[in-house]
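User: For documentation purposes, I need each entry recorded in a consistent format: the amino acid sequence on its own, followed directly by the corresponding structure tokens. There are two entries in this batch. Please keep commentary to a minimum and don't merge the entries.

Assistant: Recorded as requested. Entry 1:
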Amino acid sequence: MEDGAAFRALRSVLSESVLASTRCGDELAGFGADLQSALDRLVSVTDELWAAGDLEATLANSSTYLEVVGHIVVAWIWLEQGLTAFDKVGDFYDGKRQAGRYFFRYELPRIGAQLDLLAARDRTTLDMADGWF
């Protein structure tokens, strides 16, 4: 849509949060770097998918693509929560920081395999025959 305008806008917003996280240092900067790395890989895979010109194969794995984007957006939300909680004291803020840690350490890394699958333009779902199931 409009040559990826919404995707560019999303990238811009996420990159602003990543930049803000670098000013906090330590853990938040690391989470920001992780988010930027995931976003960069998504951009690269997206470019590869469209450049391949195989719309059928690209769309065959669209649910995986949407799951990756969803994880990246949720990581951004947790980064924003961490930025809001930065230098604040109390159980509420400690809980925000801990939940963010969990997401960045346990959930965000899962998208690596999904991005690999997308980049491979896997056709498993397309190569099914009606009589096989």
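Entry 2:
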Amino acid sequence: MEQESQSLQEKVEATKKEDIQTLKQEIMDFVKLVIWFLIIFLGLKIFVVDGYEIQGDSMEPSLSTNERILVFKLPYHLSRLSIFSDIEPFEDGNIIVFESPESPGKRYVKRIIAMGPPIDDSIVDAHTGTQTNQVNVEFDRGRVFVDNHIVKEDYLSENNRTSRDTQVLELNPGEYYVLGDNREVSKDSRSFNAIEEEAIIGRAVLRFWPPKKISLIK
């Protein structure tokens, strides 16, 4: 009788050990799952897509304050790899998010109006060290000219286009001229000149908030 009781106790203890071991394994599996989830989430956030909240009226009527957008980063990161160097991550007219050239940690959302020439097409004068092949941008009271050709901006109304500013700027390779759609209130390349490609976070592709205004961004 005593042996049976001892044997039963041993079985109970063995079962408890198995349960504890199983619980430990389940906890470890859960921790691994969380770690993998965080790695994938951070990888997507850093290299593929991220969210951004519009602040201010500088992109009216295209984007309004407090709206939220998705910013697609992958094409830009891929274009920096030699195997994908032929990828053009941005085009004239794209809306982009970029780091402020004046205030570290601050981001702006603006529209690309003009881009500098491709590096292969740019020639540096051996005597002066200056670029001999640049893209000329002229802002003249609301109208924009790139290499003496007026930029058609059908996405703007006359009220949004109105501005008293004038400016002439030369773009070198890797430089972008950006403007807000609401020209009267926007702080953009008219004040801080061209932005460097390295400052660009990605292209705005989708407005997802508020839900009633979900749409692709053009």
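Summary note for entry 2:
The helical segments are 2-47, 74-79, 158-161, 189-192.
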